[in-house]
Amino acid sequence: MDESKVALVVGARGGIGSETARALARHGWRVRALARRAGTDAAFDWIEGDAMEGASIVRAADGAQIIVHAVNPPGYRGWARLVLPMIDNTIAAARASGARILLPGTIYNYGPDAWPVLRPESPQHPATRKGAIRVSLERRLELAAADGVRSAILRAGDFFGADAGNSWFSQALVTPGRPARAIGYPGRRGIGHAWAYLPDVAETFARIAAIEATLPAFARFHLEGHWDPDGTRMVGTIAAALGRPDLRVKPFPWLLLRLAAPFNETMRELIEMRAYWEHPVRLDNTALIQALGAEPRTPLADAVRATLAGLDVRPA
């Protein structure tokens, strides 16, 4: 470990936060892991704090070269109330410490005018509330960069992995801790979909951190991840990993979500994402390849097997 390389991970108990913290530690960073409750990984310096408390983020970032902003409201709840104040606190901490912010991005800040291939510079005209919030969040980073606060955004498709938390993989395709009698799928037949394996995302962040001094003040990259060209590749890989190529594929109950939406904020947010399952949306990783030379990518079969094992999903 290089004691001069200090990274603060905000939201270190979440899926992307915990994976990125481990990747940074493997690359020789001293990791300060901030969460509401300290974790058990002895490789990190745990700090108990809340991303909504600006002073605690500023203190935790003192002396850090990197701040990974990996915090999101759980279950998609409270986005309009929490997301922007949290990034404002991280920007304040980066301004005080001189650190570069690393932000996990999504495809939700892009609308139909940017589909089907998304590039870092593609126009951002989202058709959803969550997308509009993501646009505002990234805009704040861009404005802060003009004022000396550096950042780098890594956008990716839908996360999956053993620790992905709220993910389409673990909420729609399989059910954690239960035998798989069928595989759910939210998309239409023949429509492509982009997936991102969390350990690959984390490794990419660690490699970006290693070259961050060479990057522009406001850098943006796309992770291609695993592209499923017609919606059958991921389902087929799950079935093969379970040793059950005959597993039935069942449609996602969008109608039930719509009925529950008036009473449940999470359901309302999920419904907003339906368009991304009905149209192919792929990420162009040209800029990432130019910066890193290659994109970290675990073979899909290995990634799916590890994810199913971590979620304790077995064949029925």
From TrEMBL:
It comes from the Bacteria. Residues 7-164 form the NAD-dependent epimerase/dehydratase domain. This is NAD-dependent epimerase/dehydratase domain-containing protein.
